[in-house]
Design goal:
The chain has 188 residues and is mainly α. Helix content is 74%, strand content 0%.
Length: 188
């Protein structure tokens, strides 16, 4: 898959739009396009450095917006917090799943859309329970771990739904764009 400049610019615009979407008031936590963007970037962008940077850049921009809102008493949630770097690294690692996709197929996109948020949910909550960088304390017991996962289930549910929806949008748009470009080349 060759990525032309228009697709790269589209991804950069998408990065900004996704960052702005993420700070919409009263949006369900976890319902955001960033997981789908990370998976899409991992599949489509051949320069792996950029495939990792673009989705994290979107998160950083939205966190910056959150911080400005927080400092101006317009949001109860700060943009920057302890352990954020760990979340950025985990999030960037979601894009790595896309590196192994050789051909975009509907079952493959569905699988990625389930795998990415599930991986993030399992690993990030385990690290939270273990006390890595987060501000929530859980007992270091099996019950504490299960409590951590249970409390995160609404976030996980929304991340699955949004990833399925936005992956369909991103990969579907990409497929239609590729199909249109192929038809244009055949008619010229």
């Amino acid at each position: 898959m060759k990525v032309n400049k228009s697709i790269l610019w589209s991804l950069l615009v998408l990065t900004l739009v996704a960052a702005l979407y993420r700070i919409i008031p009263n949006r369900p936590y976890g319902f955001a396009p960033q997981w789908a963007m990370a998976l899409f970037a991992g599949v489509v962008i051949r320069d792996r450095k950029w495939a990792l940077i673009i989705p994290v850049l979107s998160l950083f921009i939205s966190d910056l917006f959150y911080q400005v809102l927080y400092l101006n008493h317009m949001s109860a949630m700060p943009g920057f917090y302890e352990g954020q770097l760990v979340n950025y690294l985990l999030f960037a690692s979601v894009a790595v799943f896309g590196f192994f996709v050789r051909r975009i197929t509907l079952p493959g996109v569905l699988g990625l859309s389930l795998l990415g948020p599930t991986y993030f949910f399992l690993l990030s909550n385990f690290l939270t329970w273990a006390g890595v960088g987060e501000f929530v304390e859980y007992p270091k017991t099996w019950g504490g771990l299960m409590s951590c996962y249970t409390l995160a289930l609404p976030f996980y549910k929304m991340s699955l739904l949004s990833t399925l929806l936005f992956s369909g949008l991103f990969f579907g748009s990409y497929y239609l764009l590729q199909k249109k470009q192929t038809q244009q080349r055949l008619t010229v």
